[in-house]
Write a structure and sequence with these properties.
about 280 residues, alpha/beta, Rossmann fold, Pantoate--beta-alanine Ligase, Chain: A,domain 2, 6-stranded parallel sheet, 3-stranded antiparallel sheet, 9 strands
């Protein structure tokens, strides 16, 4: 039987809630989200429940990771449906601060990540993004003080950035990546998929097919340039405007030219109509 999660909106109330949840030394897992929850988010919650006795989900649409030209004001917000989903999963608490709580007047401290944050992937097209992500996630970690934090692998560079930050700053949080959840046709689940027009939605799974084809060619021994060029052509021929389609070291995100250089991840970002999609797979 589902139960309504505690909804918390101020830092003092959050601290009290965390103290209550830690009764009998229970472990806590945090699932940071921006709401508009889908089955991919539910998979994160379920992984969190396997890792910890108590689960907190944050819902906060973070303005500092949006550029002025991006979709902060129109980003999907589905509060009632989100609460119902989390209640069905028996989440313990929802941390739902407003912008003034997270960034009060006079706020002047930001985290500026390097390493995987300046790998020349998302940062090349959204230079503001990882500073906003690192700052808000750093705040969430210090506010909730979880034992575990669960992030989806779909935002793979973000996962690497957050993992590096948590380690570098000794935040005491074990960051865990959860596999990407896909629609039946292979499209990675994303809150932004609702922006796709019907014909765009039909074309969108090409991203996944192109990555799989390039990965197959790499495993078969094809050269990196030929394998990646072929995948990129599949994507552009489907009507996407391609930002990047690259094979990188799966841990450092450094460029590589051979499977012998380490574990390999293919990462892609491309725009279809007005919707920008990202995805990745391991090779």
């Amino acid at each position: 039987m589902s139960r309504s999660p505690m909804i918390v909106r101020t830092v003092p109330a959050l601290r009290r809630a965390v103290e209550d949840l830690r009764a009998r030394k229970a472990t806590i897992a945090l699932v940071p989200t921006m709401g508009a929850l889908h089955d991919g988010h539910v998979s994160l919650v379920r992984l969190a429940k396997r890792r910890a006795k108590r689960v907190i989900v944050s819902i906060f649409v973070n303005p500092t990771q949006f550029a002025p030209s991006e979709d902060f004001s129109s980003y999907p917000r589905t509060w009632k449906a989100d609460v119902a989903r989390l209640a069905a999963e028996n989440v313990d608490a929802i941390w739902n601060p407003d912008v003034k709580i997270m960034y009060p007047d006079g706020f002047a401290t930001r985290i500026v990540p390097e390493g995987p944050a300046i790998a020349g992937l998302e940062d090349r097209f959204r230079p503001h993004f990882f500073g906003g992500v690192a700052t808000v996630v750093g705040k969430l970690f210090t506010q909730v003080r979880p034992d575990f934090a669960i992030f989806g692998e779909k935002d793979f560079q973000q996962l690497r950035v957050v993992t590096r930050m948590a380690g570098d700053l000794d935040l005491g949080v074990k960051v865990i990546g959860s596999r990407t959840v896909r629609e039946r046709d292979g499209l990675a689940m994303s809150s932004r998929n609702v922006y796709l027009l019907p014909e765009e939605r039909r074309a969108a799974p090409v991203l996944y097919r192109a990555m799989k084809e390039s990965a197959k060619r790499l495993r078969a021994g094809d050269g990196f340039e030929a394998a990646m060029t072929g995948g990129a052509e599949l994507i552009t021929n489907a009507g996407f405007a391609l930002d990047y389609f690259e094979a990188r070291h799966a841990e450092t995100l450094a460029p590589i030219s051979s499977l012998k250089d380490g574990p390999v991840r293919i990462l892609v970002a491309a725009k279809l109509g007005k919707t920008r999609l990202i995805d990745n797979i391991g090779v």
